[in-house]
Amino acid sequence: MPRVADHDARHGQITDAVQRLIVRHGLAAVTVARTAAEAGMSVGLVQHYFTAKDEMLLATFTRVNGRFTARVDELVNRGEAEGRTIAEMLRQALAELVPLDDARRAEFLVRLAFADRAAHNARLAAVQRETLVGIRSRVAQAIDNGTACGEVAQGIDAADQALQIVAFTEGLALHAHIDPDGTPKPAILAALDGRLGRVFTGTCRHTQPG
Amino acid sequence: MPRVADHDARHGQITDAVQRLIVRHGLAAVTVARTAAEAGMSVGLVQHYFTAKDEMLLATFTRVNGRFTARVDELVNRGEAEGRTIAEMLRQALAELVPLDDARRAEFLVRLAFADRAAHNARLAAVQRETLVGIRSRVAQAIDNGTACGEVAQGIDAADQALQIVAFTEGLALHAHIDPDGTPKPAILAALDGRLGRVFTGTCRHTQPG
Question: Where does the record place the HTH tetR-type domain (chains A, B) (predicted)?
Fold first, then answer.
């Protein structure tokens, strides 16, 4: 009875094919026929899983966002196991939003393509907003954790700082994409460090020796 | 002999029509036929001015960017005439990048649409990069002017700060678009003020009384 597993696997093959097409040619070039060819399936099989192109795009966007979130969670878990500071974990997590290598560039291009499309599609806009709110609330939680453990000074407005930090990161990501030569990787990481350093000014009591 | 004036007027009518279509339906919906209908012209007349859709898009993007730059220059000229501080003029200029009203939202949607498209079109990418570099260098110039007159402390790296300030503004713009309720106008203006306030910490000697 491998039906559920098959279904999930096919679903993933199709949305991965959509992502590759977006990275290579842009969202405008995505059609059901091209997606089927890219995924090595028949058009009929793709249509069995997604009745319309919009459904296929929504599934792709949801999957890319889910993968990002899972990667950040993994980073945080590993960071906690290794006793990293909250600021370090946050810096690593935020750097995942910036097109600093091929994998992150592929994700960035998908987010960018959908940012345009979502301006005229309510369901895509909802996924986009939920993703953004989710990222911001994770950053706000990290700041609150920092306040509790001493890495962040008392009285910092976590929600406001989270909004500013995430907006800054996405702006850097956009500039790294538009003008990679003028926005080198070390400058981006230093800018993120500097921005976090204005909020994370203390030392966590839990990790302090003695 | 009104040929040149006619040409410019037609050109503007066509690119304005493209902009309206992008705002209303997205870049994917733009065709030569729809643009002709929106501009109230024949398809043949549009094709007389633009031999291909890509030419029409490039002209629209160039025009929107040019209009933004002209508006910022006007703001700065007026601000100088009124004796505003450099920080105030810069805040106003940066706020032009954020979708805070219908006019700025229309421009933002066009920039967003082209940001996606430019990822797969070298000529659009070049216009996009030039525009970004132009904005950054204007902000860097404003910081240098601030250093000369006393509004900015000595030793500030103008290029680095300009990069960070523009990236932050564009990130805020993206968030104001994706999640307007979570990014209200006062919060955006306060965030811009706060960011500029970290660089513009002094008072201009020219405008100081006494």
Answer: 8-68
- DSSP string computed for chain B: --HHHHHHHHHHHHHHHHHHHHHHH-GGG--HHHHHHHHT--HHHHHHH-SSHHHHHHHHHHHHHHHHHHHHHHHHHHHHHTT--HHHHHHHHHHTTS--SHHHHHHHHHHHHHHHHHTT-HHHHHHHHHHHHHHHHHHHHHHHHHHHHTSS-TT--HHHHHHHHHHHHHHHHHHHHH-TTTS-HHHHHHHHHHHHHTT--S--TTTS--
Q: Which residues in chain B are closer than 8 Å to A112, comparing Cβ atoms?
A: 115-116, 119
Distance between CA atoms of residues A125 and A199, nearest Å: 30
The pLDDT mean for chain A works out to: 91
Q: Are residues A136 and A81 in the same domain?
A: yes
- A169-193 confidence digits (pLDDT tens): 999 999 999 999 999 999 999 999 9
* Domain encompassing residue A59: 52-197
Asked whether A171 and B174 are in contact (CB, 8 A), the reply is yes
Categorize the per-residue pLDDT at A210 as very low, low, confident or very high, splitting at 50, 70 and 90: very low
Residue A148 contacts B, CB cutoff 8 Å: no
Least confident segment among A68-77, A173-182, B33-42:
A68-77
ipTM, interface predicted TM-score of the complex: 0.90
Q: Say yes or no: B159 and B139 in one domain.
A: yes
Q: Residue A202 domain-assigned? A: no
For chain A, say whether B130 makes contact (Cβ under 8 Å): no
The CATH number given to whatever domain includes residue A75 is 1.10.357.10
Does residue A180 contact residue A153 with C-beta atoms inside 8 Å? no
Please give the structure tokens belonging to residue A46: 């793709």
| Contact assessment for residue A126 and residue A118, using Cβ atoms and an 8 Å cutoff | no
What is the reported pLDDT for A116? 83
Residue A4, pLDDT score: 65
Residue B176's nearest CA partner among B98, B91, B95 is: B98
Which of A28, A178, A191 is opposite residue B164, by nearest beta carbon?
A: A191
Domain containing residue B22: CATH number: 1.10.10
| Interchain contact, B170 vs A169, CB within 8 Å | no
Smallest CA-to-CA distance from A54 within A35, A41, A37 is with A35
